[in-house]
């Protein structure tokens, strides 16, 4: 790369650096506390998964019974890690793309602490037996207004930044992120008011709950992750997004299809019976937005293979998008009312689908964004290439084991449940080996994420490498195109390399 | 080509090399970033369209498989609920042992009709409502017990004690099965254990006797009961082990499979 740098690029870089500096503490706060919740959640996940195959495990402890640990695991994953990772990425991306420094760091940090206290009290509430029993809404009733208010206090500033942005083009990532920021309050307020404030028929309540789960995945986590991937892929490779029309197709089909999905969970239940069928058809149709965005992002990344191989951000994003494609295929294959849908209703499959969406797709893209954002906001480079590699390998293999084993093991379990003349224990037995595998895989993921948390904390404390050379996933023994690793403060003039 | 050899078009007072060096040191990650390029304009590939079209066909099949989606008459597609196993529908409910079946029916009647006064533990209160536990009026002769339930009881009993205004008639709305159930329940619960099952036929006979009383419609008295009804109800008590239908209480022909 030739170091021809004009003053406008320098000013541009200074502006970006200013934006990054203004966001250092909010972004690092959300990422680090999110990573801590992720470790807690996976720890609870290991316990709850162990109880599936060894029911006697820790059974003497009342607050560690399955009915409490499992919801605590999922809620910590969704509200502790997922939402906070999304906050970090949204506030950073929106500031960058709207070219505005963040001026409300204090409010965001206070609201972030309130959010964490809300999640923490909610988890304690679940573990002490006050869970509501509604999937993904198990926090006791006090929690949701707290979360809603802190949500607005955290993200309202990104709306304002978008509103006062300089004139010009609205980038694809901004469509997705803006949509996610608007859709989350819509689904969150709808589900919570309908279930807490004006509860109707309980069967319909279960339907609303199933819709909320699906909408949270496809109307919040999916657009946030896609917006991030649409930013990272062209940014790191330096190549244009493959196809603008494909991006438009992906965005609008998601916006139109996703709100209909979800109620297929209640097929056969006494609700108006077009609801589950429309839900199943819409979930299958979600293949279209997933395929459009996935192909677009993958083609963009493949246009610069050498970068894809060494950049941690791109590798994680690539793995996440691959998981999205698998998720889209699973959405088609698991929702055929004549054959597979009854098998997935009460088995491990639903869990596998959730984990594939939350961890395999969303979290991997968030990890990619973390590896890109953190060196910029802390002005330090990642400490260890090996930790990143380990995090990548354990996450990818762990996801394959947890999600795919749960998806297809769940089908086996469903077949066992359908054979209703056999004792129920037979169905449970057919899920046994899959449950053991899931426990093992969660343990691997837990191991790598504890180190991810430590790595992030060290970066926040500005104990990262002082260097102008990024930490890339090159082989330790191969030639490093960017000089010796650990080259401290070698940023003399003319060494600015692009990557 | 090193930066110091460049001649940027700038006023002389700015040392470009130094400014740039500072930038690279302080914001290395930001300055090495690439700019977002303009969006590509590749057309949507035919393969993507074909895959999406195929999935749309599947989704259409799912929706079409639902039948008349907006028919509110039923909540699920015809044929969604699986057929019962061969012969399962004809069997009805699983038969139960007579004692358990009569007790279950009696427990419902007791909680509806008796529990308000005699209490959930049947201990009464000693002043207005007598205890049913170990009472000879309960575990003694069955006809006397049936007459008290059907007609009520007033005035002093043999010990000379009066319980308030007496007991009101409880016969209204009782079927013979209900009466047999509640009698069996009280006689085998709350510490009582006569072990016999009052059959529905015996209860029916008790209703006939009650209708034939001279003071029909009035509460019974201890004297009347001692004079006319101090005997067992006609008919055979059921074998407690016999299998009956838990709902109709009719004996089932076939023994438990």
Structural overview:
With 499 residues, chain A is mainly α. Chain A has one domain (13-460): Up-down Bundle (Cytochrome C Oxidase, Chain A). Chain A contains 16 helices and no strands. In chain A, helix 6 runs antiparallel to helix 7, helix 8 runs antiparallel to helix 10 and helix 14 (348-378) packs antiparallel against helix 15 (385-418). The N and C termini of chain A lie close together (10 Å). Chain B has a domain at 96-244: Cytochrome Bc1 Complex, Chain D, domain 2, CATH 1.10.760. A two-stranded antiparallel ribbon of chain B has the order 1-4. In chain B, strands 2-3 form a two-stranded parallel sheet. Chains A and B meet through helix 1, helix 7, helix 8, helix 9 and helix 10 of A and helix 1, helix 2 and helix 3 of B.
The assigned CATH architecture of the domain at 96-244 in chain B is Orthogonal Bundle
From the alpha-carbon coordinates, what is the Rg of chain B to the nearest angstrom? 42 Å
CATH topology of the domain at 96-244 in chain B: Cytochrome Bc1 Complex, Chain D, domain 2
CATH superfamily of the domain at 96-244 in chain B: Cytochrome c-like domain
Cα distance spanning the termini of chain A = 10 Å
Order of helices and strands of chain A: HHHHHHHHHHHHHHHH
> Which CATH class of the domain at 96-244 in chain B applies here?
Mainly Alpha
Query: What does the oligomeric state look like here?
Result: heterodimer
Structural class of chain A: mainly alpha
The structural domain count of chain A equals 1
What gross morphology of chain A would you assign? globular
């Amino acid at each position: 790369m030739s170091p021809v740098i004009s003053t406008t690029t320098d000013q541009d870089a200074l502006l970006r650096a200013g934006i990054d500096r203004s966001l250092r503490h909010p972004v690092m706060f959300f990422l680090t506390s999110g990573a801590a919740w992720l470790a807690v959640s996976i720890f609870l996940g290991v316990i709850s998964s162990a109880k599936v195959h060894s029911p006697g495990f820790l059974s003497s402890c009342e607050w560690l019974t399955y009915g409490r640990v499992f919801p605590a695991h999922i809620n910590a994953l969704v509200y502790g890690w997922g939402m906070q990772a999304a906050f970090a990425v949204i506030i950073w991306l929106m500031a960058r793309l709207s070219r505005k420094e963040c001026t409300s760091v204090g409010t965001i940090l206070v609201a972030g602490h309130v959010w964490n206290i809300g999640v923490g009290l909610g988890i304690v509430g679940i573990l002490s037996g006050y869970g509501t029993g509604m999937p993904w809404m198990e926090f006791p009733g006090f929690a949701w207004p707290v979360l809603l208010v802190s949500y607005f206090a955290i993200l309202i500033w990104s709306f304002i930044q978008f509103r006062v942005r300089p004139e010009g083009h609205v980038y694809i990532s901004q469509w997705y992120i803006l949509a996610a920021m608007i859709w989350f309050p819509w689904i969150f307020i709808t589900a919570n008011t309908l279930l807490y404030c004006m509860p109707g028929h309980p069967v319909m309540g279960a339907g609303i709950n199933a819709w909320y789960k699906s909408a949270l995945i496809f109307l919040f986590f999916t657009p946030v992750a896609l917006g991030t991937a649409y930013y990272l892929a062209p940014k790191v490779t330096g190549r244009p997004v493959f196809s603008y029309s494909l991006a438009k197709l992906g965005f609008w089909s998601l916006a139109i299809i996703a709100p209909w999905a979800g109620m297929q969970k209640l097929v056969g239940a006494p609700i108006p019976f077009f609801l589950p069928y429309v839900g199943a058809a819409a979930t299958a149709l979600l293949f279209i937005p997933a395929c459009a965005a996935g192909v677009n992002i993958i083609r963009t990344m493949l246009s610069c293979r050498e970068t894809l191989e060494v950049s941690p951000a791109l590798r994680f994003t690539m793995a996440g998008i691959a998981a999205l494609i698998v998720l889209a295929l699973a959405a088609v294959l698991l929702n055929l009312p004549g054959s597979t849908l009854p098998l997935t209703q009460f088995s491990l499959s639903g869990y596998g689908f959730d984990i594939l969406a939350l961890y395999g797709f969303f979290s991997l893209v968030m990890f990619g964004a973390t590896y890109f954002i953190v060196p910029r906001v802390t002005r330090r480079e990642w400490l260890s290439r090996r930790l990143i590699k380990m995090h990548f390998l354990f996450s990818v293999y762990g996801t394959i084991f947890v999600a795919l084993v749960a998806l297809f093991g769940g089908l086996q379990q469903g077949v066992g449940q359908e054979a209703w003349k056999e004792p129920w224990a037979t169905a449970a037995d057919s899920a046994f080996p899959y449950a053991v595998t899931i426990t093992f895989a969660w343990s691997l993921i837990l191991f790598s994420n504890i180190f991810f948390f430590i790595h992030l904390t060290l970066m926040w404390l500005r104990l990262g490498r002082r260097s102008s050379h990024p930490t890339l996933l090159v082989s330790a023994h191969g030639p490093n195109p960017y000089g010796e690793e650990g080259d401290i403060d070698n940023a003399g003039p003319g060494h600015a390399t692009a990557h | 080509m090193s930066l110091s050899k460049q001649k940027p078009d700038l006023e002389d007072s700015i040392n470009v090399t130094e400014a740039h060096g500072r930038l690279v040191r302080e914001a290395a990650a930001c300055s090495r970033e690439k700019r977002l390029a303009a969006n590509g304009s590749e057309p949507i590939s035919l393969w993507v369209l074909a895959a999406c079209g195929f999935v749309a066909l599947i989704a259409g099949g799912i929706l079409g498989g639902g039948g008349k989606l907006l028919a509110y008459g039923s909540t699920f597609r015809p044929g969604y609920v699986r057929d019962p196993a061969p012969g399962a529908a004809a069997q009805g409910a699983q038969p139960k042992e007579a004692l358990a079946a009569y007790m279950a029916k009696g427990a419902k009647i007791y909680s509806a009709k008796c529990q308000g006064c005699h209490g959930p533990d049947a201990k009464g209160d000693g002043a207005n409502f007598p205890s049913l536990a170990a009472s000879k009026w309960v575990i003694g002769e069955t006809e006397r017990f049936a007459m008290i339930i059907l007609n009520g009881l007033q005035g002093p009993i043999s010990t000379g004690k009066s319980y308030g205004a007496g007991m009101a008639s409880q016969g209204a709305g009782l079927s013979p099965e209900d009466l047999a159930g509640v009698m069996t329940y009280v006689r085998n619960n709350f510490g009582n254990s006569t072990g016999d099952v009052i059959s529905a036929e015996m209860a029916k006979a008790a209703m006939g006797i009650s209708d034939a009383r001279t003071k029909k419609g009035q509460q019974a008295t201890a004297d009347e009961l001692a004079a006319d009804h101090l005997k067992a109800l006609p008919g055979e008590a059921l074998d407690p082990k016999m299998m009956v239908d838990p709902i109709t209480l009719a004996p089932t022909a076939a023994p438990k499979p």
